[in-house]
Structure to design on (513 residues):
């Protein structure tokens, strides 16, 4: 088992947002987490990713306990989170955004750039543009490409298609589908059509708990069967 | 007209010194959200180190200036390591209290070693340079040139070096830099030491224009806060523009209004800027 999350409670101050959440992930899986706005999906990914400490419970990654470790260390252990709000380093160029991700890894800048360009060749032309000038779709591609640098073992991707134009959404889905065979992923996604295309398994989150786990591919392929549970 | 141009040039000198001192304060404020009064102590220590080496030991001014910068580096390192670093993510009140305490203790230590009476340092160049009908002390011209060099050097540093780029990214989004696996605080510490060395240099440059006294750090730090607030916390270009503008305000007020109101006018400008500037959306 690559990741095991056990009985997580997570709070912001006094407000408890996650209640006794458990999940697991096997090598090579793509698991989607679905749920309404405010259900606690981002909180879950950020807790797994080392951004927040759980009040109770544990996160084990590759057999090692990682909850409570500093964010840098979690990232270096091979677990990368891709932000929901598509934040890039706006004052830096695309190339420099990539350079910063390559620096703590074993990859050279050229290797790192090649990785980003490989998922979307048009990035080649944007390398010297300031990242703040990128469109939402370009930012998302930069963020996903950047997260691949250093060969992480697990990607946590938070609503990758949110707020993007339909044509870009198709592109992002294709990118994720192509990555599927190479890397394990947890993808938070509200669009169930996307979920049905990508997911090996689905967790439904409702008000801070998992209300359902769907493993049957036939059900996953048919979102009408679970859309009213959100 | 000549007088006016002369006042402008004097304003540029004050602006240059304010810029050199403020840059470190602005970066600490912008990057870490820490209000660092101890910066004023580094400035004062720079001036007193110059006095000790150049006046008491009788060495050359340049040697004294180098000594001042050299002394500031370990001192800044200690302040960062044992005080600033513990204030990350804490309430800003703690930062104000802790760093103000450092400034107070340091100022009293200076008084204990050097006495309370003002100490003069003579102009190291002691020449006037003439430009047409203008006359300028050469030392002031050197100050302006140095501040431009510092600006260019820092611009290159933040644009071209990896450390600089990490800090630029961290100023915008510290957490995102950490999530790449980069210990961003380490890089902020490097920049903290650079900013402190510049504050010591500021003390060295200001000393011959005025006199030393143990509490000189208090006056300068408030002026520098005005620069940082007007220029925008962590905004490198804004800090430069604000420093030169406020330096000019200072010098023109002294020349054409009331000389004792020069400091006050700087705060008036700051207040006006605060009133009319749109509130920055949080990053
Ligand atoms: N920093 C915070 N401080 C306090 N409460 C927060 C904070 N961040 C999120 N919350 C609350 O925690 C709950 C879960 O938020 P979270 O962002 O995890 O939801 P989400 O499922 O990702 O929603 P969305 O689909 O809108 O991204 C919400 O009620 C939210 O208001
Ligand atoms: Mg969310």
């Amino acid at each position: 088992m690559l990741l095991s999350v056990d009985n997580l409670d997570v709070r912001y101050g006094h407000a408890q947002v996650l209640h006794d959440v458990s999940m697991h992930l096997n090598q090579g899986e793509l698991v989607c987490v679905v749920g309404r706005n405010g259900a606690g999906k981002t909180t879950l990914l950020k807790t797994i990713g080392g951004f927040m400490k759980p009040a109770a419970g544990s996160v084990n990654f590759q057999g090692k306990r990682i909850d409570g470790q500093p964010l840098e260390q979690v990232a270096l252990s091979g677990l990368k989170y891709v932000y929901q709000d598509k934040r890039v380093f706006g004052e830096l160029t695309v190339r420099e955004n990539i350079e910063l991700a390559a620096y703590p890894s074993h990859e050279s800048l050229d290797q790192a750039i090649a990785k980003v360009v490989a998922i979307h060749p048009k990035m080649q032309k944007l390398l010297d543009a300031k990242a703040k000038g990128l469109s939402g779709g370009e930012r998302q591609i930069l963020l996903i490409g950047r997260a691949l640098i250093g060969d992480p073992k697990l990607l946590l991707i938070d609503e990758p298609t949110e707020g993007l134009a339909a044509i870009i959404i198709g592109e992002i889905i294709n990118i994720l589908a192509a990555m599927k065979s190479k890397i394990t992923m947890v993808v938070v996604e509200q669009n169930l059509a996307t979920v049905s295309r990508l997911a090996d398994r689905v967790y439904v989150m409702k008000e801070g708990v998992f209300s359902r786990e769907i493993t049957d591919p036939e059900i996953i392929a048919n979102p009408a069967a679970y859309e009213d549970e959100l | 007209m000549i007088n006016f141009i002369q006042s402008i040039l004097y304003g540029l000198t004050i602006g240059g010194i304010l810029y050199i001192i403020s840059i470190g304060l602005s970066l600490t404020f912008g990057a870490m959200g820490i209000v660092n009064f101890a910066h004023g102590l580094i400035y004062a220590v720079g001036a007193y180190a110059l006095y000790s080496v150049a006046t008491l030991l009788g060495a050359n001014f340049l040697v004294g200036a180098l000594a001042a910068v050299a002394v500031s580096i370990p001192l800044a390192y200690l302040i960062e390591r044992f005080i600033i670093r513990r204030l990350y993510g804490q309430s800003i009140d703690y930062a104000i209290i802790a760093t103000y305490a450092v400034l107070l203790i340091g100022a009293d230590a200076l008084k204990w070693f050097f006495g309370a009476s003002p100490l003069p340092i003579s102009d190291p160049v002691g020449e006037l340079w003439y430009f047409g009908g203008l006359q300028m002390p050469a030392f002031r011209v050197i100050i302006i040139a140095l501040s431009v060099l510092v600006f260019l050097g820092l611009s290159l540093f933040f644009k071209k070096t990896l450390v600089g780029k990490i800090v630029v990214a961290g100023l915008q989004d510290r957490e995102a830099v950490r999530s790449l696996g980069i210990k961003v605080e380490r890089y902020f510490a490097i920049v903290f030491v650079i900013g402190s060395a510049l504050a010591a240099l500021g003390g060295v440059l200001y000393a011959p224009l005025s006199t030393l006294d143990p509490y000189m750090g208090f006056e300068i730090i408030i002026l520098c806060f005005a620069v940082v607030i007007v220029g925008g916390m962590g905004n490198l270009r804004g800090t430069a523009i604000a420093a030169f503008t406020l330096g000019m305000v200072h010098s023109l007020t002294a020349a054409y209004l009331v000389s004792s109101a020069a400091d006050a006018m700087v705060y008036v400008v700051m207040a006006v800027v605060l009133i009319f500037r749109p509130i920055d959306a949080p990053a």
